[in-house]
Amino acid sequence: MLEVRGLDARYGDAQALWDVALDVGAAETVCIVGPNGAGKTTLVQTIAGLHRAAAGTITVEGVDVAALPGHRVCDHGVATVPEGRRVFGHMSVRDNLLLGAYRRPARAVHRETEARVYELFPRLKERATQQAGSLSGGEQQMLALGRALMALPRLLLLDEPSLGLAPVIVDEVFDAIAAVNATGVSVLLVEQDVERALSAASRGYLLIEGRIVASGTTTELRESADVRERVLGM
Amino acid sequence: MTAVQAALSGALIGGLYALMAAGLSVTWGTLRVINLAHFGLILVGAYLSYQLTSAWGIDPMLTLLVSAPVLFVVGAALQWAYDRFNIVEFNSLLVSFGLLMIIIEVSTQVWTADFRHIDAGANPYGTSALHLGPIALPVSRLVALGFALLLIGGGHLVLERTFAGRGLRAFAQDRTVAASFGIDHRRLGLVVGGLAGVSAAVAGMVFALGNTIAPAHAYEWFGTVFAVVILGGIGNLLGSLFAGLGVGAFSALVAVLWDPSYEPFVLFLAIILALVLRPQGLFTRRGLA
């Protein structure tokens, strides 16, 4: 599904990612864990085409999208739930969802997709006409996820979905992610809450100071000395 | 009675202000370009309507069939150039002011600095009025209001109800996230710039119906139209309609009840007060509406 090789990213003179390589298989959930400032968000943004790669390839279903302009990457089935949710606060909940279906293929079936999103998050249906900015943090996270689903993704990029949410809401969000993954959507999950990330994913990568320093199944990662010391603090 | 008459016919002029403000407001609110050259496009629209009516003897409204497509292309080209040369909110004021001066100079070369007006014989809207009891409403101003309602109402519906409109609103709020859902800012810029050009063609035609045209008019529109854009809320179409009507009525009332020379003073004092009390604009529902 996704194959990243030799990926470098920089902000001006400051390099944020060095030679990153990772894979996400079809219908797989893969997590990237790492401390603050490791470059996790940069990695997601670069894969999504919102930050230009300085070097390397990002292959989605066999097509290298690294050089595409930001608005073309979603043509290849990639949708993003950005860090901090970033819903369109001045638009209604329903308009946020419909915006997710902006591309023609998604537009054609937006009614059906919308109904499925409401099934997954009944709360969004109740609040359909409300301004997105007036929702609680958890509801906004659901909306950001629903908006991404409206684009009919085959690869979902999730950046810190638990950020700033109460544990009970986080449970709900992660249940929804599992449900989406069960429908065959591949998920790349970036998460500071390592415990959650490792239990949601089947494989993972440890990103530290812009480099992948460990990878493996989540069981292997749990036992790795690096993960225990550098991110779990044990 | 004079006050009612003044307020009503002032509000009707406000329809023209709203038409002038709508294009400026939307390009500012979505593309983050303060396009002063828009006033130049309105001027060219007015001259085109004048020229084509004089040349062909057709109804002035029909001149839109030529001037609207021409200004669509000019508006889109302007936006393309702003994007190409990375012109944003801050430097756009300077660059577009330069462009405005160029347009005014070229207009002066073509049409001279003399006052021009559509020949009365060719302009069925110029001098007639609709009489409602003691109140007379000039037809040219009713036309202005009609076009303002049509264009702004239509634009509002497009923004609210269509995928393209939602795309534009989303783009105005968060470009990065909007791009991740496939919104192409270049194409959007061309369409929005072009439509602003069309609104300039309409505003110019409407202006030409009821007024004499001279190049310096483009400078005179500045103050009032800016006030309408700001009061209505930047990027807020319906807001610019209400603000246009309000500013028109208010200015006319000041002129009649007090003194025409106080009009700008009172108007801008009121605007400063309004901005102090409601910095987000009077009619804004926040964001694009």
UniProtKB/TrEMBL annotation, chain A:
The keyword ATP-binding applies. One of its GO terms (molecular function) is branched-chain amino acid transmembrane transporter activity. Residues 2-234 form the ABC transporter domain. CDD domains: ABC_TM1139_LivF_branched. GO terms for biological process: L-amino acid transport. Keywords: Amino-acid transport, ATP-binding, Nucleotide-binding, Transport. It comes from the Bacteria. InterPro entries: AAA+_ATPase, ABC_transporter-like_ATP-bd, ABC_transporter-like_CS, BCAA_Transport_ATP-bd_LivF, P-loop_NTPase. Belongs to the ABC transporter superfamily. This is Amino acid/amide ABC transporter ATP-binding protein 2, HAAT family.
Automatic annotation (TrEMBL), chain B:
InterPro entries: ABC_transp_permease, BCAA_transport_permease. The chain crosses the membrane at residues 6-26, 33-50, 62-81, 93-112, 132-159, 188-210, 241-258, 264-283. Its main location: membrane. GO terms for biological process: amino acid transport. GO terms for cellular component: plasma membrane. It is found in: Cell membrane. GO terms for molecular function: transmembrane transporter activity. It is a multi-pass membrane protein. Keywords: Amino-acid transport, Cell membrane, Membrane, Transmembrane, Transmembrane helix, Transport. Coiled coil: none annotated. It comes from the Bacteria. Belongs to the binding-protein-dependent transport system permease family. LivHM subfamily. This is Branched-chain amino acid transport system permease protein. The lineage of its organism: Bacteria, Bacillati, Actinomycetota, Actinomycetes, Micromonosporales.
